[in-house]
Design a protein that fits this description.
A hairpin with a 6-residue loop joins strand 4 and strand 5. This protein has a domain at 37-143: 4-Layer Sandwich (S-adenosylmethionine decarboxylase), CATH 3.60.90.10. Helix content is 18%, strand content 36%. The protein is elongated. It has 3 helices and 8 strands. Helix 2 runs antiparallel to helix 3. The strands form 2 sheets. A 6-stranded antiparallel β-sheet has the order 4-5-6-7-3-8, with helices on one face. It comes from Novacetimonas maltaceti. Heterotetramer of two alpha and two beta chains arranged as a dimer of alpha/beta heterodimers. Its cofactor is pyruvate.
Length: 154
């Protein structure tokens, strides 16, 4: 048993979109979780989200619950999460590890700023996570940069 399982931080529900009932007999039998969209094939969508004039940036429990809700709303499977509360400024750094990748956050309450990374593969839509986060953070301005990671030629 790994250390995360001992802490109760590992999901007991495996992702249905990444399970095969048959053992792999060769590389040809493996399911490809790359995404095909707009004539492009890639590993997943990586959003860099900057939240400016944001609130509630110093409560690791609320941030954990919100990012977990955001992950589920986007269609992802949560494996575990971990958050750290810094002093004296109260910033929070943390990650929700997903079967489909991750959501991470770093907050600067003294600047009313948070930097969020959302990387998801498969059928997940990371854009659906943003409105969930906005409910907690009430950002005055949101900047989103999207990257398609692992692009391959079709």
């Amino acid at each position: 048993m790994n250390a995360l399982a001992q802490l109760g931080m590992v999901s007991e529900l495996p992702s249905d979109n990444q399970i095969s009932s048959a053992p792999f007999s060769s590389d040809d039998d493996r399911k490809d979780y790359f995404v095909e969209k707009d004539g492009m094939k890639f590993a997943g969508t990586h959003l860099l989200v900057d939240l400016w004039d944001a609130h509630n940036l110093d409560d690791p429990d609320k941030i954990d619950r919100t990012l977990c809700e955001a992950a589920v709303t986007a269609g992802a499977t949560i494996l575990h999460s971990h958050f750290h509360h810094f002093t004296p400024n109260g910033g929070v750094s943390g990650v929700v590890v997903l079967a489909e990748s991750h959501i991470s956050i770093h907050t600067w309450p003294e600047r009313n700023f948070a930097a969020v990374d959302i990387f998801m593969c498969g059928a997940c839509d990371p854009h659906l996570a943003i409105p969930v986060m906005q409910r907690l953070f009430q950002a005055g301005r949101i900047e989103v940069d999207e990257q398609r990671r692992g692009r391959v030629a079709l």
